[in-house]
Amino acid sequence: MHALKQQMKPLIKVIIPAYNEQDSIALVINDIPSIVNEVIVISNNSTDNTEVNAKNAGATVLSENRKGYGYACLKGMEYISLKNEKPDIIVFLDGDYSDYPEQLNELVEPILKDNIDFVVGARVKHLRKQGSMTPQQIFGNWLATILMKLFFNAKFTDLGPFRAIKYDKLLALQMEDKTYGWTVEMQLKALKQKLSYTEIPMKYRNRIGVSKVSGTVKGSILAGIKILGWIFKYSFK
């Protein structure tokens, strides 16, 4: 992988977990830059036209019936592992059109130019549309990143789902979280394994449809418990 920045055209695959995102998924796929070799949408128990719309937009579509963000991401990784040609970089992106997929070029640039292992798209305040993140999301991100700074001297400011990582480094993390803790698990393990990392400021807008996590009180509480659980688990390892 150290030769990655010398390659003219790296192999980049995008993993998009999606649960009932029929109105947004094609917009997301269509805005992904041509530098990407394959877009993989994992339908996580969708009951609408998410799968059809994703296929029509040119994505590879997989199905994961066990509900959970992590389950969907792991399904995408399993699919990639069975391919002969392995990617250089994996990008994770949500299917709700809250991120700006065209910023993927900026996201992977530190990997390609500076050989950084892991890049998180940070939803910084001055680039966020008003109301695009709920108060509980903002507080949860603040608390999680403050604790990571306290326990691990981390420089993360966000748990943003729009992120890029070298494929071999991703495999070495041995990701396991099946639900809400996926993003923080990746960041904690990256810190533990001393991966080089950085954040790129990202624009962020109101998602299309209702959030399945931050849009409900139950979802917010469960996500918060899971995130804090991972942080405390790793702080005592």
TrEMBL record:
It holds the Pfam family Glycos_transf_2. Keywords: Transferase. Residues 14-155 form the Glycosyltransferase 2-like domain. GO terms for molecular function: transferase activity. It comes from the Bacteria. PANTHER family: RFBJ PROTEIN, UNDECAPRENYL-PHOSPHATE 4-DEOXY-4-FORMAMIDO-L-ARABINOSE TRANSFERASE-RELATED. This is Glycosyltransferase involved in cell wall biosynthesis.
